[in-house]
Amino acid sequence: MLASVTFFPNSGRTKDCLVINTLFLPELREMLAANNVADLQEFCEALHSARTAEFMEALTAHETWQVLLHAEPATRVEIFGYLEKEKQIEIITEQDREQVATLLAELAADDRVDILAEIDDDIVKDLLPRLPTEERRDVQRLSQFPEGTAGAVMTTEIAKLKENLTVKEALEEVARQSEGLETIYYIYVVDDDDHLRGLVSARQLVTGLKSPNTTMVDLMETELVTADVMEDQEEVAHKVAKLDLLAIPVVDAEHQLVGIITHDDVIDVVREEATEDAHRIAAVDPLDDSYIKTHILTLCWKRGIWLMILFAFALFTAFALQRYDTELSEWTWLILFIPLIISSGGNSGSQSATLIITALSLNQITTDDWRKIVWRELLMGLVLGGILALLGFIAAIPFSPSVVDGLVLPITILLVVISSTLFGAILPLVFKRLGLDPAMMSNPFVAGIIDVVGIVIYMNVALMLLSKSV
Fold first, then answer.
1. For the chain, what is the domain count?
2. Model confidence band, residue 417 (pLDDT cutoffs 50, 70, 90)
């Protein structure tokens, strides 16, 4: 059952007395079966496109497409953009090629490339010749850029002005170009070879009408922040967020304007990167799709491969314990505190790793700050380790034969926490320096390393103190 709108046949548009009601899925299918053109048109036009797409979630891809055919071309594109990616792909692969090509031609350039990247190559080869020449070339040009670069997420639909235009001529040119643009945030000024020279805002143009003969050279701003076409998309997102930009121009090696990345694309990039980091921090290979839509075998592989690596770390912990089997059999009370040692080290190391990974992803620190980071983590390790060591000493008193024996636990905790904070901070920095994603050095990996280090520290402290005591 779908919550929807009561539609008024043959009204041409939603009436003022539009009433939100309950519409059963069979009723929508009856409209399709009866080819009720008026009601289907009103269904497409009555509400926001996102809501219309929601109401069609339970329809098959074929039924959804039949409904979309009753919408105006612009509305059809909007509704299509809100459909689930799987349904979009199914529509493109299964419906009439000419109709699908017409839809693709109306999509934003970056959205068109993104969806075609998900389609089988044979189908793409069949669709491309059906696209208008300009759109076809645009697809081929944007498809050349590697995934994750600025070129892969930019749109080529840009408002551009020549630098010798006057304000009056510029307004006329913007009015002409705006019909084919997704949106206009900034208007970029270029020379005859499309080299980026500056930008003007719509407000500047309107204000500039006081002097209609002023040229763009005199009006434009020249201190621009740009993104290189091969720059990592995450770095571009940081630039846009830091400077609070609505869009950022993308230029090639010769500083020619090739596209722009808008703030809504940046939001998608940030969401994508944050999701990848969250997965890696949990020691899961990033998913290509949502959790619920990822095949169970794929999900098992992406989780299992890292679980096996972590399992190997756990084996090292077992080997470390086996190495000190004789000592543990002699001082059995030490076994009671092994979980405490491991958890203290793992938790403190995970905290440091999370803080450093987050700071790196937000560009709050760089690998050049390693000395300051090491110093801060060393101090924090001393403070936090000292507090936990005191608690550990109190906890060890009832179990240890003597005061000297009781010092084993607090000294171990202090050393383990210091080591953990340093490991947790340094390892992500090392990965970043090597050009790898620092999130790969996730909490489980840090905890796995610290488990082994903690056991070794624990037993060596015990050997030094308890042997002297004996």
1. 3
2. very high
Q: State the CATH number of the domain containing residue 256.
A: 3.10.580.10
Distance CA(449)–CA(342), nearest Å, equals 10
Strand partners, 189: 161, 198
The H or E element containing residue 192 is: none
Q: What is the pTM of this model?
A: 0.62
Cβ atoms of 194 and 257 closer than 8 Å: yes
Strand residue runs (E) in 383-427: none
Tokens of 25: 């899925």
Q: Of 246, 267, 288, which closes a domain? A: 267
State the residue range of the domain holding 34: 2-150
Residue 64 belongs to a domain: yes
Categorize the per-residue pLDDT at 401 as very low, low, confident or very high, splitting at 50, 70 and 90: confident
A 10 A CB-CB count for 305 gives 12
Give me the pLDDT at residue 11, please: 40
- The answer to whether residues 428 and 378 belong to one domain is yes
Do 311 and 440 fall within a single domain? Answer: yes
Token pair belonging to 397: 């008193």
pLDDT digits (tens, 9 = 90+) for 121-141: 888 888 888 888 888 888 888
With contact defined as beta carbons under 8 Å apart, do 127 and 89 qualify?
A: no
Q: List b or e across 135-164, with b for residues whose CB sees 16 or more CB atoms inside 10 angstroms.
A: bbebbeebeebeeebbbbbbbbbbbebbbe
**What pLDDT is stored for residue 441 in this prediction?**
66
In the 8-state DSSP scheme, what is residue 258?
A: E
| Same domain, yes or no: 15 and 111 | yes
Q: Which residues contact 370 (CB under 8 A, 6 or more apart)?
A: 426, 429
Question: Is 275 a member of any domain?
Answer: no
Q: Is the dihedral of CA 371, 375, 378, 384 positive or negative?
A: negative
- Using H for helix, E for strand and C for coil, what is the string for 303-318? HHHHHHHHHHHHHHHH
pLDDT one-digit tens code per residue, 343-396:
888 888 888 888 888 888 777 888 889 999 999 999 999 999 999 999 988 888
What CATH number is attached to the domain comprising 63?
1.25.60.10
In Å, how far from its chain's centre is CA 286? 11
Structure tokens at 88: 């979009």
